Amino acid sequence: MTRVIAKSPQEKRVLNRLLQNIGYEVMPFKSAVSKVLADVPTEVPLTITATGGKGLGPTLSAAVELTQKGYTVAPHIPARLVAGPEELDQIVTRLEEAAVDRIFIVAGDAEKPVGIFNDALDLLEALSERGHRFSNIGIGGYPEGHALLPDEKINKAIRDKAPFADRVLTQICFNSDTFLKWGSRLKGEGIDLPIFVGMPGPVSRQKLMRISAGLGLGQSANFLKKQQNMFWRFFSPAGYTPTKLIRGLIQDLAKFDTAITGFHIFTFNDLARTEAWRRDLIEQTK
Question: What digits encode the pLDDT tens for the residues 167-191?
């Protein structure tokens, strides 16, 4: 049983609203689709990461298959893994033909781009020029900045990308106050896209050890490599749950003018545990 997070009627309402807008991030390992089908109801939206060593193939295949099974799915498309407009056209055509109507565009962590797209804005502009039928385009947000880029560049990037996007999915952050102040700053700058705050779900120490052995497989694994302070924090004997983070958000959200709308859960494919945790939180809102 998850520790009580919502302790008043107002907090229960806030928690309920955020849980109505929860999504899971999934890594496209061989077992991913079967795990989703076994453990995740179709009403939970999904994003599918792109694996650094295997290209976009597994991501697109998983997105298409899960869409055909009734899920709402957004594949990650890292700009640096797309060679150019011709490959972008092939990707978009495949997704549209499969009725995948969401997409999540990031720069990607490849040191060198495989083609002409260097960052997410390049790909967003090319997608806009081509035309598409996606109903929702997601972009990344970095409440604590980026390990490889100065804050000024990160801040400019989200301002430039916002006109092409429909929502912001953030990277992992452990501090509710950081989320709230960052979200308030964006709103003050006129960026009012819905924000889905990124956090790990309940993850066991054993699961994290297995994931860490394959660092570089995807962005939600890469963060462990880049953020060593997070890495050691995760490897506590009990693993990790975002109880404290969510508690801080629901306590203080009303004090800030933000577009924080929901949760973006990095599941590390521990889907059964994540789904049991989500259901337990829903019970707390009643």
Answer: 999 988 889 999 999 999 999 999 9
Using DSSP's 3-state secondary structure scheme, residue 137 falls into: strand
Which of these, 55, 21, 64, lies nearest to 168 by C-alpha position? 21
Give domain status of residue 109, yes or no. Answer: yes
The two most distant CA atoms of the chain are separated, in Å, by 54
Specify the pLDDT at position 16: 97
280: in domain: no
Tell whether 3 is covered by a domain: no
What's the pTM value of the predicted model, to 2 decimals?
Answer: 0.91
Q: How many domains does the chain have?
A: 1
Please report, for residues 40, 177, 202, 272, the alpha-carbon distance to residue 207 in angstroms, rounded to integers and kept in the order given: 18, 28, 10, 12
Which parts of the chain have pLDDT scores under 70? 1-2, 52, 147-148, 205, 207-238
The residue whose two tokens read 């994540």 is 274
CA-nearest of 199, 192, 206, 213 to 260 is 192
DSSP codes, 4-52: P---SHHHHHHHHHHHTTEEEEE---TTHHHHHHHH--TTS-EEEPPBT
Torsion of CA 32, 35, 41, 44, to 10 degrees: -30
> Whole domain around residue 191: which residue ranges?
23-271
Count Cβ neighbours within 10 Å for each residue of 119-141 and write b for 16 or more, e otherwise. Answer: bbbbbbebbeeeebebeebbbbb
pLDDT of amino acid 99: 98
What DSSP character marks residue 202? S
Our CA dihedral for 137, 143, 146, 150, rounded to 10 degrees, sits at 110
Q: Given this model, what pLDDT does residue 4 score? A: 86
CATH of the domain at 97: 3.20.20.220
Question: Would residue 8 count as lying in a domain?
Answer: no
Spatial CB neighbours of 116, under 8 Å, sequence gap ≥ 6 = 83, 84, 122
